[in-house]
């Protein structure tokens, strides 16, 4: 098989890129290890920045997002006594949109055929070759048969565990990593949210987040040590813990049976560079943020925005500058989102090694935020997403 761009991975990054390239008339093939049902059902975060909403609008794939997405003009930090409201619209004139990432993936999948985005699901043993050259190729298996696709570029959109990043020689790369000493236990339930806005809470018993998917579906989290087992967290225990940590100021919490419940680790990770020869990395393949601030999908969207512009420049105008500058451009935004996600994680969680001094720093910072429009503006600017 021959095409212009081979995309590995049909998560949000790979699907979005496939659509953007096809919209510019660029040929591409997306190789995905899983089956469609698995991809469409993965549960992930649900806060979209304007960059993500804008890309869906540019593709004309935002009908459901416009109908069902909830514009949020603000969110709250809770410090155990009060809610500190960050008024996004007042502070920076923008809002975020609450719409499940799962729904974005489904919208992109549903439109793939009609837009000519070819996705090969169930692609096994995907391996990259010749990325140092101008003629890379990717081998894989499909229903047991050995396959090969040749293209000018390969784009690694295959998440944290995919093969793309590993194809870059260690001598050409540098990794930065921080693993946090807790995970987030998440629960999804068909109950109305306790508050019409998100609440991130720092309580003596730990972190809690009240989020939502719609006016009838809530998503909540508490942080737990990674040694905890989900079997030891029956629904009632999760609801009790949420009620304690969020406190009465969060609003009335309606309980219901968990539609989904799981524990996810928290990690900050950046891989440099994001391009090696003819291979570009996008999304979780190159970086991970802790979920505090919901930057994961939005960073994948900004990477894809830069990658699509670079590839369009190359194929439509024979311009190599976008490709040459891709890594620096994407990483400049990635590092700022890494910083914000890390700092919000640091502020809102009780770290096991923290002593009285670290705790006093949290108290002082929350108090400063509560009383300073400048501090709130800095948070708001990052939360709605820095410009691309
Ligand atoms: N071969 C083919 N596909 C692969 C392989 C492989 N060996 N390994 C992984 N993949 C696929 C996965 O099955 C998945 O569908 O790559 C895709 C990667 O998708 P995500 O992990 O969702 O990563 P990304 O698209 O970068 O999304 C970034 O969305 O998924 C969230 O937490 C993520 O918020 C982050 C954002
Ligand atoms: C979610 O709704 O799942 C969510 C929202 C905000 C976050 C993380 C997750 O920061």
Q: Would you write up a description of this structure?
A:
The chain has helices at 12-23, 36-41, 50-58, 63-68, 88-92, 101-110, 235-246, 296-317, 321-348, 356-371, 373-384, and strands spanning 5-8, 28-31, 47-48, 70-72, 74-78, 83-87, 96-98, 118-120, 124-129, 137-142, 145-150, 153-156, 174-189, 199-203, 206-212, 218-224, 260-272, 275-276, 279-281, 287-288. The protein has an eight-stranded mixed beta sheet. A six-stranded mixed beta sheet has the order 8-2-1-12-19-18. It has a three-stranded antiparallel beta sheet with strand order 3-7-4. The protein is globular. With 388 residues, it is of the alpha+beta class. 36% of the residues lie in helices and 27% in strands. Helix 8 (296-317) packs antiparallel against helix 9. The protein has a domain at 5-44 and 101-177 and 268-345: FAD/NAD(P)-binding domain, CATH 3.50.50.60. Residues 45-47, 198, 209, 211, 219, 291-294 line the site of P-hydroxybenzoic acid (PHB).
What's the short version?
This protein is an alpha+beta fold and 388 residues long. It has helices spanning 12-23, 36-41, 50-58, 63-68, 88-92, 101-110, 235-246, 296-317, 321-348, 356-371, 373-384; strands at residues 5-8, 28-31, 47-48, 70-72, 74-78, 83-87, 96-98, 118-120, 124-129, 137-142, 145-150, 153-156, 174-189, 199-203, 206-212, 218-224, 260-272, 275-276, 279-281, 287-288.
């Amino acid at each position: 098989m021959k095409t212009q761009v081979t995309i590995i991975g049909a998560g949000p990054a790979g699907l979005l890129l496939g659509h953007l390239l096809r919209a510019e008339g660029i040929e591409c093939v997306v190789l995905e290890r899983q089956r469609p049902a698995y991809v469409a059902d993965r549960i992930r975060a649900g806060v979209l920045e304007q960059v993500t909403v804008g890309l869906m609008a540019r593709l004309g794939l935002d009908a459901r997002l416009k109908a069902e997405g909830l514009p949020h003009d603000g969110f709250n930090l809770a410090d155990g006594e009060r809610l500190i409201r960050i008024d996004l619209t007042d502070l920076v004139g923008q809002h975020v949109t609450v719409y499940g990432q799962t729904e974005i993936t489904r919208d992109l999948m549903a439109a793939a055929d009609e837009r000519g985005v070819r996705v090969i699901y169930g692609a096994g043993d995907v391996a990259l070759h010749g990325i140092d050259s101008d003629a890379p190729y990717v081998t894989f298996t499909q229903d047991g048969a050995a396959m090969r696709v040749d293209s000018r570029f390969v784009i690694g959109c295959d998440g944290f565990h995919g093969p793309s990043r590993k194809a870059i020689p260690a001598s050409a790369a540098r990794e930065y990593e921080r693993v946090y000493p807790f995970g987030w236990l998440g629960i999804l339930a068909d109950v109305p949210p306790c508050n019409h806005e998100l609440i991130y809470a720092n309580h003596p018993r730990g972190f809690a987040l009240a989020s939502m998917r719609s006016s009838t579906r809530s998503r909540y989290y508490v942080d737990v040590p990674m040694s905890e087992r989900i079997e030891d967290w029956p629904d009632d225990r999760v609801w009790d813990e949420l009620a304690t940590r969020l406190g009465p100021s969060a609003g009335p919490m309606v309980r219901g049976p968990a539609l989904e419940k799981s524990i996810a680790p928290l990690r900050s990770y950046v891989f440099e560079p994001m391009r090696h020869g003819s291979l570009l990395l996008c999304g979780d393949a190159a970086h991970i943020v802790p979920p505090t601030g919901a930057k994961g999908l939005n960073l994948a969207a900004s990477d894809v925005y830069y990658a699509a512009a670079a590839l369009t420049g190359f194929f439509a105008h024979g311009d190599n500058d976008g490709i040459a500058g891709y890594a620096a451009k994407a990483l400049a935004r990635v590092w700022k989102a890494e910083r914000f996600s890390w700092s919000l994680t640091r502020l809102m969680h009780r770290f096991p090694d923290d002593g009285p001094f670290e705790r006093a720093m949290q108290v002082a910072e929350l108090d400063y935020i509560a009383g300073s429009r400048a501090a709130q503006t800095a948070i708001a600017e990052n939360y709605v997403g820095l410009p691309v």
